[in-house]
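Changelog-adjacent note: as of this version, every example in the card shows the full chain rather than a window. The one below runs 528 residues end to end.
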Amino acid sequence: MKRLWSLILVLAIAVATAGCTKVQPAETASGANAEEEDTVTLEWYINYNWYNTPWGGNVVSQKVTDHTGVDIRFVSPDGNETVNLDALIAGDKLPDLVTLGWWESQVSVMINAGQIYALNELADEYDAYFWEVADAERLKWYTQPDGNVYCYPNSSYSPGDYEKGRISSNQTFLVRKDIYEAIGSPDMTTPEGFADAVRAAAEKFPLVDGKALIPVGAHEFTERGCDSFDKFLQNFLAIPYEKDGEYYDRYTDPEYKRWLMMFRELGEEGLLSNEIFIDKRAQMEEKIADGRYFCMLYQRTDMAEQQRVLAEKNPDSIYIAVDGPKNEAGDMHTLPSSSLNGWTVTMISKNCKDPEKAIRFLSFLMSEEGQKLIALGVEGENYRMENGRAVLTEETQLLMQTDYPEYVRQVGANDTYWMLQDNRMQAEWMPKEDEILYQMEEWTYPYVCYTGQYDVFLTDGSEVNTAQEKIEEIHGEMLPRLLLAPTEEEFERLWDEYVTLREENGLSAVLQESTRQMSAAKEKLGIE
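Full-length structure tokens:
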């Protein structure tokens, strides 16, 4: 009955779908060509409510449109991503192109509902070039039981790519450089050292440019938890994904609990700001740009623009990566990069007004020519090649470093349009990052490991998926309560409740299915 009412609600929402999405303001992407009969405008749905970059007005989108005859109008959710996308699916109102996280249950829902074109069939009919630029390992990984491939990933790596080295993770432990050095560059790898450093920073620097210091920063808290205080922390603590061939429940590991107890202690002392529990991405970006956080477990690329702002104002106020929380044995962090799954996947819906141009558009973006364009801009105008590596022009480099929003508006490179970025290909010819960004990237190299065999996808609507969703909701509800528990005794009581609720709501079934998928992925990848 509950699922029936959910379906009725989604169908009702579908009627008002137009009011639940943001259409990015369009600028003419290709001058006079945009008015020609052979240019088609495709709507591209990006399933992130923070995405607000328009297509058009910069040299990258103009060149792509000139080359492909495709202009783009981006659409993104205005509010809850799941509710908005479910409404589009239920109302059969999917835009021409759809990009969402590979793990989202709607991927299989759209495929099973027959709402998505098979890319291989479109390629066979319209675009043989697709087979030249598509990566064979990625195609094999995403081939469905019916033999078709319905989506293509970005930021995808195979286990073999890791053996070549110099693959970075996005997960970093960051500290504000000047504050960290002023308190003696302390070791923050133990709970005691971490807590003492936070206390010292808060005592010595209560204000940052007249605004209160936020001692510990974090990613956004959602109904499913907080990346910083769950999986990022677990990765820094090198908590295993499996034990004795069985998928492991990392969320109740003793090391994880030990560190949550330390954060609770900081909270009791008033050193976990209320702001971190309620701020959304826009507010966090503003505070990072002001340098208000002392330390944070954070994705480095998510704050690159704010890092540049800090460097321009005061080079000593930037954030640097240092060793963060470690387990009691002092094991190295185990930081994931991307796997064959990638980050997001892009699909062509059967509502697409021109599937031939859509598949050719994707093929161009996947090609080396397209990758150089979205990563670097226009050769001769924004960069030149020297000894196989790109060198940005002085004007482009200066604009990127001093006014990044204007760089995006004028140039639109540096993977501004990241939906089909190929990091492995780009690494062969990309210039070295700015030092203020490269330090964070380089720091991750020794800690990166392949974890794609542990990526689990639970079919939407299945009993085990329902159990997993409930378990995630329990975590999302209990995590802030644990962190804000007023006493150690209350933390222990909540922890026992947390463990029991997870077990009572199907944890064993989730772990069993996760073990099955893990074993199948290992066999498919040829790893033990």
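Structural remarks: The chain has 24 helices and 18 strands.
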